[in-house]
Design goal:
- The structure is a homodimer.
- In chain A, helix 1 crosses helix 10.
- The first copy, chain A, is built from eleven helices and 14 strands.
- By secondary structure, chain A is α/β, with parallel strands linked by helices.
- Chain A is globular, with a radius of gyration of 21 Å.
- In chain A, the strands form three sheets. The first copy, chain A, has a seven-stranded parallel sheet with strand order 3-2-1-4-5-6-14, sandwiched between helices.
- At the A-B interface, helix 1, helix 3, helix 4, strand 13 and helix 10 of A face helix 1, helix 3, helix 4, strand 13 and helix 10 of B.
- Strand 13 of chain A pairs antiparallel with strand 13 of chain B.
């Protein structure tokens, strides 16, 4: 049994907990929190809730620590810090900072003889794998990634920060015509606006100026200005009833050529719960990190560096017999 | 530059040749044949055509030998034999015999300090990877594989062996209603007949009894008897005009649960040319075998054992920067 620790208990931490409990070869040893542990109620009776402060004393009790913090400020500090003590997994997704994050984790993990797998999940993660496999097989081709239909928590948060907004949910939606053009193999050049639209469901505070709110959303740089954005005002009751889930998904479509022949490779995800699926990927990566470390490997890794067999609870004989 | 050899020059050998020539880090050194080399014309001016008999003397000239023989009789003998001399790649697809084939290749390759990657292609191959990734991430789920619409060469050959048949092409076609039921997440139990239909285009010899041919096809055990099969007689001209290509494809659909949430993972291929795509996968696996062997690894491998980064011509830094 692999003993798993979870650092941070938000949506992602709960998703990881569910995944670890579904894996027969893993057991949740403890959830670590920067809050007061007595304020944190977890779903696993057999696991402890402990302060993050005691982590340095837990090296014998934890085989892999799964870090469920945010990419903006938590993980750049947390992952190298804990890679010096544990095999660690994170879902770091700030693309531009991956090289420095990888380097920092690599230094710490190598010095400690541990493994740190960064940027696990579905994008980065499963989608990255599909971009890599497709382009390795068909060098003359192009990868297109579409996200959604799904809830973007970052965009929902951005709307909630606008004055007069009580609550909000933002859906990222691929443009069907763009998806069809890509699938057809015509290799289109697509602008940001041509690929995705953004649907916002907003609960306004009483007396708030709705047209100003709508204008502020639609003109917000980076988040909405480059997209066709629709804003629909709804009641808190309707938002709670219809928009409380965190579904997501999307597709990586790769079109490539060999001679005169065209080939289309498409990988798609339809996820009822983004954090539960992401947590499941992290738990599988924890299994791989544990095994790779036991074989003597150390340092920073991404899913690109993990032979798929390490992710499976089954033996080599079993996967060759049943899945090959 | 990796120096690649191709053993066997049928449809698959030509597909590998095209793929190697599209890869900037590989060059085709030679095609080896059991026929008279002067009878074999290849598409690459810079490469030699040589008798398979000289292979034992070519250890310095070939980094990886890609074996393009058939699974029934060629590869069980060829792959272990040449794994004792070279890093080798094959597309062995006789499922029931994979354990013994793996063991034979493993013995030979380990003794020689070489790598033998078996069962590369798309199924086994890319589809296997998708079954493995999905089931590793979501243990509570089910994988469904659909093949087609595409030409089955084995089934086409079976029809051509019937008396009175001049030529034939058989298409395997997934049943759309079955695909939809799987996608919906209902986890159906599907019989062979419910999953695929078989469409046969047959050129009858002059004077042949068409109703007997149709009956013989439809009642052929294993190949057709368990399927809804349609037989359409056409002229040789029409077959040559409309059915000379070797398109194929299909999809792996995995539906799984976490708690109350359902997730659908779908990987699909639409290939204009089955042998050209398969050849492209083999060439990428040759790159991986070459690198893994240079790092000191040896023995039999499948795509399950290859960290995806080894398949790409790009460096770790490049793939993290551009594909993660």
């Amino acid at each position: 049994m692999m003993k798993i620790g979870i650092m941070g208990y938000g949506n992602l931490g709960r998703g990881v907990e569910m995944a670890v409990n579904a894996n027969k070869d893993q057991e949740l040893a403890a959830v670590f929190t920067r809050r007061d542990p007595s304020d944190v109620k977890i779903a696993t009776d057999s696991a402890k809730v402990l302060s993050a402060d005691v982590l340095p004393e837990m090296k014998e009790e934890i085989d892999v620590l799964i870090l469920c913090g945010g990419s903006a400020t938590d993980l750049p500090e947390m992952t190298p810090k804990y890679a010096a003590m544990f095999n660690v997994i994170d879902s770091f997704d700030t693309h531009a900072r991956i090289p420095e994050h990888f380097a920092a984790v690599d230094r710490a993990a190598k010095a400690a003889g541990r493994i740190g797998v960064i940027s696990c999940g579905w994008d980065p993660g499963m989608f990255s794998l599909n971009r890599l496999y497709a382009s390795s097989v068909l060098p003359d081709g192009e990868a297109y990634t579409f996200w959604g239909r799904g809830v973007s928590q970052g965009h929902s948060d951005a709307i909630r920060r606008i004055e007069g907004v009580a609550d909000a949910r933002q859906y990222t939606v691929p443009v069907p015509a763009a998806v069809e053009r890509v699938r057809s193999g015509e290799n289109p050049q697509l602008t940001t606006r041509e690929k995705h639209t953004r649907e916002c469901f907003v609960v306004a505070k009483e007396g708030a100026d709705r047209s100003r709110i709508e204008q502020e959303i639609k003109s917000m740089p980076n988040y909405f200005a480059d997209y066709d954005t629709t804003v629909t005002f709804i009641s808190q009751e309707e938002l709670d009833a219809k928009h409380k889930g965190l579904p997501h998904g999307g597709s990586v479509i790769y079109t490539g050529k060999t001679g005169e022949s065209r080939h289309v490779i498409e990988y798609s995800l339809k996820l009822d719960s983004n954090p539960e699926f992401t947590g499941s990927v992290l738990a599988a990566c924890a299994r791989a990190a544990y095994r790779m470390n036991r074989e003597g490997m150390s340092g920073a890794k991404t899913m690109f560096d993990i032979a798929p067999a390490y992710l499976s609870p089954l033996s080599g004989e079993e996967i060759r017999a049943h899945m090959l």
